Amino acid sequence: MSVMPGFRLAVLSVVCLLLLAGQALAASPLREIEDLKQQVAPGSAVTYADLLKLIFPKKSTKEKETPQTPPVSSLDGYFQKQPLTAKRNEDYGGVLVLPIKAQGRPLLLLLVNAIGESVEEEGDAGEQPLRHPFNLLALFQTSPTPRLLDLVDIGQMTNLGMIEGFWKGNPLIDLTPTTQACMVFQEHFNSSEGWLRLHLLWVRNHRLEKILGVFPYSCRTLCEIFTSGAAFWTEPDKGREFPKVVAKLTMKVEPTPRLEECGKRQPGYTRSYKGVWRWDPAKQKYCQTSGNLNKLYKFYEKYSGSPYPP
After folding, report:
1. Would 170 disulfide with which of 28, 148, 199, 304, CB 3.0-4.6 Å?
2. What does the pLDDT look like over 232-280, one tens digit per residue?
3. What is the 3-state secondary structure (H, E, C) of the chain?
4. Is 0.85 surpassed by the pTM of this model?
């Protein structure tokens, strides 16, 4: 199915513009790495190629011995660790690097867009290999020695160009002066619908953990059009180590088009819905404590035809 002109980009642009409402937008520290032999820091002996070798180990010289690949978690799997079992090679579509602070410790996030070796599929011309892009978010320490701390598969619905455009608005949000969180997203669309899965991640105990996830949805039919955007900010939380994190989804419904098929014309409107997440010292994680996002998700279900969030 073809994409309705402008629809996908309109959905994403609303989210990008509102991403870090409540904070001064600094220039994004994101960089694309074109030369993998580049040093990760001035004077360092470690290159980005060295870091990538920790994700994609070289095959052993022994024919029957397979490389020891690191475990990878998935945003869709609620961070349950799974082995990296798919056959993958080092045909990279691109590498983005983003420094992040974790309780005062400087670390590196690498977002790797790569091409995986595929299963064989029978076609008119016989068996043809399929090649699938995938995106990995890797957390590294680079000093005193390079070490892969965590690895998350953020899905096949994203592409590097869209991720880079999204991240240029600065995906980092300061929780404290020494601790940051990072927004990642998955997007999916068809000719009349657009889905976003927005996740706010931070580093705890050398691992990427999820603070929250929200799921804007937009829809365009003959007689009804609505788009959704998201904004995030922090608020002080007296007596707690970390601040509250607030997510607001804003839905804009357009007036009914002046078409005979649409019947009585309804005015447009804009409504906002919020969720609040607070640090729980006993559980040692962020938990949602209030908000009315479920009311919005119930509205989405009328159009998506399936339970929401997806």
Report:
1. 28
2. 899 999 999 999 999 999 999 999 988 888 888 889 999 999 999 999 9
3. CCCCCCHHHHHHHHHHHHCCCCCCCCCCCCEECCCCCCECCCCCCCEHHHHHHHHCCCCCCCCCCCCCCCEEEECCCCCCCEECCCCEEEEEEEEEEEEEEECCEEEEEEEEEEEECCCEEEECCEEEECCEEEEEEEEEECCCCCEEEEEEECCCCCCHHHHHHHHCCCCEEEEECCEEEEEEEEEEECCCEEEEEEEEEEEECCEEEEEEEECCEEEECCCCEEEEEEEEEEECCCCCCCCEEEEEEEEEECCCCCCHHHCCCCCCEEEEEEEEEEEECCCCEEEEEEECHHHHHHHHHHHHCCCCCC
4. no
Rounded to the nearest 10 degrees, how much is the dihedral formed by the CA atoms of 59, 131, 154, 157?
180
- Are the CB atoms for 146 and 50 separated by under 8 Å? yes
Triad 112, 196, 175: Cα angle to 5°: 70
Q: What is the pLDDT of residues 280-308, one digit of tens each?
A: 999 999 999 999 999 999 999 988 888 88
Percent of the chain with pLDDT over 90: 35
CA distances from 212 to 156, 171, 176, 250, 295 (A): 21, 14, 17, 17, 17
Which of 228, 172, 169, 165 minimizes the C-alpha distance to 197? 228
Tokens of 163: 């991720």
